[in-house]
Amino acid sequence: MKKAGRSALYIFGLWSGIAVISGIAALLGYVMVGGLGNQLIAATDAVAAGAILAMIADTMIPEAFEANHNYAGLVTVFGFLIAFALSHLGNAAGGR
Predict the structure, then answer these.
(1) How confident is the model over 38-90, as pLDDT tens digits?
(2) What does the alpha-carbon distance between residue 32 and residue 87 come to, in Å, rounded to a whole number?
(3) How many CA within 13 A on the CB side of residue 9?
(4) N or C: which end of the chain has fewer CB within 10 A?
(5) d(C-alpha 79, C-alpha 87), whole Å
(6) CA distance 38 to 3
(7) Cα angle, residue 25 at apex, residues 47 and 44 outer, rounded to 5°
(8) How far apart are CA 34 and CA 45, in angstroms?
(9) pTM (two decimals)
């Protein structure tokens, strides 16, 4: 965005707005869907995870590979391993 000529105020304002809207959406989702069955929550989590993977594969991986192709794959694998480990630590600590 900076390269496109947007001001720092615009960029920070846009990302702050996205963060606030995401927080509100998470709260609404928790309130509206939180009491429904574990199967629905698992299906929703799976769809969200698929959307994140699609975004990463489409946008971030090609850019990372272009910038530093020697380590892009390795860093991606470590990222998924860390996410997997944190997920299981959350489950062991009493999370879902």
Answers:
(1) 888 888 888 988 888 888 777 777 777 777 777 777 777 888 889 888 888 86
(2) 23
(3) 0
(4) C
(5) 12
(6) 44
(7) 20
(8) 12
(9) 0.47
| Cα dist from 42 to 30, 39, 64, 95, whole Å | 13, 5, 30, 13
Rounded distance, CA 65 to CA 12, Å?
Answer: 26
Length of the chain: 96
- Cα(59)–Cα(20) distance, rounded to whole angstroms? 23
SS3 of 34-75: the string is: CCCCHHHHHHHHHHHHHHHHHHHHHHHHHHHHHHCCCCHHHH
